[in-house]
Amino acid sequence: MIDLHMHTFLSDGELSPNELVQRARKIGYSAMAITDHVDISNVEIVVKEIVKFCEEAKNYYTDIIVLPGVEITHVPPHHINEIAEFAKKLGTKIVVVHGETIVEPVELGTNREAIKSKYVDILAHPGLISEEDVILANENQKYLEITARKGHSITNGHVAKLCKKHNVKMVINTDTHSPENLITDETARKILKGAGLDDSDIITVFQNSLEIIKKYNS
Ligand SMILES: [Zn+2]
Ligand SMILES: [Zn+2]
Q1: 3-state SS class at 118
Q2: Alpha carbons 97 and 71: distance in angstroms, whole number
Q3: Least enclosed by CB within 10 Å: which of 52, 73, 89, 94?
């Protein structure tokens, strides 16, 4: 499993970075990103801590790649680009934006600004994303997320259908906050099937996650 969206107690996750990695490797993860929630109040400290952890992790975990990330969360849409740029300058690799899930009052325009920013890699749980934004995601080569997370996953089918129609790359992530949120490849496959994807689409989704890992694992 490659999982590019996970939380630790550096934001609202339950586990320390080390325990999260340890539990992930035990169920067969090969790569992951720690992407704690950030806004302007904590981006500096969170990126610093995650980058420090990932540098250390390289030295003692030989069977799993752990990349530093952030999830820009509930930031006013017009500030997303600048905070994403700032996070990258601070050394983060993967920038995820907390998209317009239908189960939270995420500001309208968040999906659009995330897709427009060259510093954003993945738009997470984009809810009932518009076709216009999906077309823009294709032009800007953004990855859209199919999520294993309860609530956010309600709109997976909608996201998958539009991504397929407009050739937008998808990734599957767990958005883990607790140990029981971690999944196996088998469960990931079932979730992708449930979103309406076929076997060849599913292979492509897994390849997309690997492509992001390869881009940033240096
Ligand atoms: Zn989120
Ligand atoms: Zn999240």
Answers
A1: coil
A2: 5
A3: 89
pLDDT in tens, 27-53: 999 999 999 999 999 999 999 999 999
Strand order from edge to edge, sheet including 122-124: 2-3, 31-38, 65-72, 94-98, 122-124, 143-147, 169-173
Residues near 89 by beta carbon (within 8 Å), at least 6 away in sequence: none
Query: pTM value?
Result: 0.98
CA of 149 to the centre of ligand 2 (A): 9
Both structure tokens of 117: 């920013």
Domain assignments of the chain as residue spans, ordered by start: 2-216
CA 213 / ligand 2 centre spacing (Å): 18
Q: Are 124 and 99 in contact (CB under 8 A)?
A: yes
Q: Superfamily assignment of 2-216 in CATH?
A: Metal-dependent hydrolases (3.20.20.140)
